[in-house]
């Protein structure tokens, strides 16, 4: 990496005081190569744990991302919208359970096809929820590298089993109240709808502009104790639970000792 | 570092307009015939920010219970409101005759393609998020973070109310850099093309080479999209458009970034096939 020199001490021109420290290199940032290494490690462990992470590479693109699809059972208070009786809005209270072994096809349109009887039957195998007012939602999580922020970004979208996309309001209601209050203080740092940078489709995301802030202490601590850290895994374990994505502890018990040479190469 | 004569460039960019004709999608249920609506669209703004009058006009002809979120289409392509209007036009319609003919929809919102835009605050959040990302690239976000809330508001209000002076009084801070650096840390740019899923190319690129030479538009394309360049003896296949014009490929990227960026502080570059008449 080339760092354009602003290191000449004392004589920084005062035309732009704000950029004085910009060449200072941070230990807490991730580059794309390191991102891929972390993803590779995560995928190897995921294969053993069978929790469904995969590496996706859009056609004709060198860039890729981590993807996982899960069914989440959420309890729901239905709020009939005035305009359209069919389209009841979901107000989601909390997670009742996360089904970790459900591998659902990524294309939710299938659920609305006429020939989807089999799919529905598959879904019926999923353990039923005890709460009476609850429903299954399909969550799709993507971990994409952002070169601007030098950090991973968590994109996600959610569908009902009928294939309807959740609105931003519904997504907010699916976030635990403890997180919600904190996130809503500053909309720019929170959940919003944006275009997926590799797919060009609407996704929700947790804004990455504060990532460095919460990763810094963690990485500095690890450095002090000479412990290696998988940036992506640690980051995901912090940020994932906000939107119902949990990283099992097993990921951390062996991840440092694993031999990184294996088949599923994200590169 | 903006020279006086370059200020005209900023004005020309800001006041760029596209004559447009909005017609109602023929499947919409109307109570009476809806006349087309003509409008000069500002290139640097967003569709959903400048079409209140379009909405009002067509709603007069509609039955209110048939109305859902408004969205726009051009020749079968849903138009992404979160791209600047000029980018949408250059990318999809630069070869077509004026006025730009846009179709207005009030139902079947394509939520697989378009972001929802229920209020102007969504546009504001998107706009500020772009400015912030651009400043991360240019100054490690130090300039935008040093600004106060009212400064951010001034940028947004400048765009929303089409106030060039109000906007640039604040935006010039985002365009500063030390003479020693010779430019920003990285150039915030996006290169759009219409083929493939990937909506645009965005990577890290410095305004100055390691040897200290200014990078040009040509250098950028060579690295990001070599197919856009014409080799000797070849026929030109692509146009490289910024604000509807083809800048000289020898233009320094830093200059382009300071003068031809959109208000969101990104340099939006469209690569489109050379029109065949």
Automatic annotation (TrEMBL), chain A:
It comes from the Eukaryota. GO terms for molecular function: Atg12 conjugating enzyme activity. GO terms for biological process: autophagosome assembly; autophagy of mitochondrion; protein modification by small protein conjugation. Gene3D superfamilies: 3.30.1460.50. InterPro entries: Atg3/Atg10. The keyword Transferase applies. Keywords: Autophagy, Transferase, Ubl conjugation pathway. GO terms for cellular component: cytosol. Belongs to the ATG10 family. This is Ubiquitin-like-conjugating enzyme ATG10. It comes from Gouania willdenowi (Blunt-snouted clingfish). The lineage of its organism: Eukaryota, Metazoa, Chordata, Craniata, Vertebrata. The gene is atg10.
TrEMBL record, chain B:
Residues 122-176 form the Autophagy protein ATG5 alpha-helical bundle region domain. It is found in: Cytoplasm; Preautophagosomal structure membrane. InterPro entries: Atg5, ATG5_HBR, Atg5_HR, ATG5_UblA, Atg5_UblA_dom_sf, ATG5_UblB. Residues 186-271 form the Autophagy protein ATG5 UblB domain. GO terms for biological process: apoptotic process; autophagosome assembly; autophagy of mitochondrion; cellular response to nitrogen starvation; immune system process; negative regulation of programmed cell death; piecemeal microautophagy of the nucleus. It comes from the Eukaryota. It is a peripheral membrane protein. One of its GO terms (molecular function) is Atg8-family ligase activity. Pfam families: ATG5_HBR, ATG5_UblA, ATG5_UblB. Residues 13-106 form the Autophagy protein ATG5 UblA domain. Belongs to the ATG5 family. May play an important role in the apoptotic process, possibly within the modified cytoskeleton. Its expression is a relatively late event in the apoptotic process, occurring downstream of caspase activity. Plays a crucial role in IFN-gamma-induced autophagic cell death by interacting with FADD. This is Autophagy protein 5. It comes from Gouania willdenowi. The gene is atg5.
């Amino acid at each position: 990496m080339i760092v354009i020199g602003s290191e000449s001490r004392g004589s920084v021109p005062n035309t732009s005081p704000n950029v004085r420290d910009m060449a200072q290199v941070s230990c807490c940032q991730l580059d794309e190569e390191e991102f891929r290494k972390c993803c590779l490690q995560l995928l190897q462990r995921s294969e053993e744990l069978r929790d469904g992470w995969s590496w996706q590479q859009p056609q004709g693109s060198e860039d890729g991302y981590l993807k996982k699809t899960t069914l989440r059972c959420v309890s729901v208070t239905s709020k009939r919208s005035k305009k359209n009786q069919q389209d009841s809005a979901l107000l989601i209270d909390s997670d009742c359970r996360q089904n970790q072994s459900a591998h659902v096809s990524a294309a939710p349109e299938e659920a609305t096809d006429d020939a989807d009887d089999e799919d529905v039957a598959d879904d019926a195998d999923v353990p039923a929820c005890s709460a009476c007012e609850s429903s299954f939602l399909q969550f799709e999580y993507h971990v994409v590298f952002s070169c601007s922020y030098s950090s991973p970004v968590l994109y996600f979208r959610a569908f009902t089993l009928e294939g309807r996309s959740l609105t931003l309001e519904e997504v907010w209601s699916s976030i635990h109240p403890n997180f919600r209050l904190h996130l809503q203080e500053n909309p720019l740092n929170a959940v919003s709808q944006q275009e997926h940078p590799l797919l060009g489709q609407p996704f929700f995301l947790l804004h990455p502009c504060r990532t460095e802030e919460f990763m810094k202490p963690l990485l500095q601590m690890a450095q002090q104790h000479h412990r290696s850290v998988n940036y992506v895994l640690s980051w995901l374990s912090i940020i994932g639970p906000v939107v119902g994505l949990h990283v099992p502890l097993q990921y951390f018990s062996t991840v440092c000792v694993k031999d990184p040479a294996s088949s599923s190469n994200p590169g | 570092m903006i020279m006086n004569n370059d200020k005209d460039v900023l004005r020309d960019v800001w006041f760029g307009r596209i004559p447009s004709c909005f017609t109602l999608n023929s499947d919409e249920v109307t109570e009476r015939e809806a006349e087309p609506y003509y409008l000069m669209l500002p290139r640097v703004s967003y569709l959903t920010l400048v079409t209140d009058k379009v909405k009002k006009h067509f709603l007069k002809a509609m039955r209110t219970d048939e109305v859902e979120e408004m969205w726009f289409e051009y020749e079968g392509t849903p138009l992404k409101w979160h791209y600047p209007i000029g980018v949408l036009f250059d990318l999809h319609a630069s070869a077509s005759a004026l006025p730009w003919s846009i179709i207005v929809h009030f139902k079947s919102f394509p939520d697989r393609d378009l972001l929802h835009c229920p209020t102007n605050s969504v546009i504001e959040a998107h706009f500020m998020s772009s400015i912030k990302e651009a400043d991360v690239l240019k100054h490690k976000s130090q300039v935008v973070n040093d600004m106060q809330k009212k400064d951010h508001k001034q940028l947004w209000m400048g765009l929303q109310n089409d106030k060039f002076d109000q906007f640039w009084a604040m935006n010039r801070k985002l365009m500063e850099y030390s003479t020693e650096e010779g430019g920003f840390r990285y150039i915030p740019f996006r290169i759009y093309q219409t083929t493939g899923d990937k909506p645009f190319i965005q990577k890290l690129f410095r305004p100055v080479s390691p040897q200290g030479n200014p990078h040009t538009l040509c250098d950028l394309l060579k690295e990001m999209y070599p197919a856009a360049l014409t080799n000797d003896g070849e026929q030109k296949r692509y146009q490289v458009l910024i604000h509807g014009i083809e800048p000289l490929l020898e233009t320094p990227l830093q200059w382009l970034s300071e003068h031809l960026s959109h208000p969101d502080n990104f340099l939006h570059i469209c690569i489109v096939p050379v029109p065949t008449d």
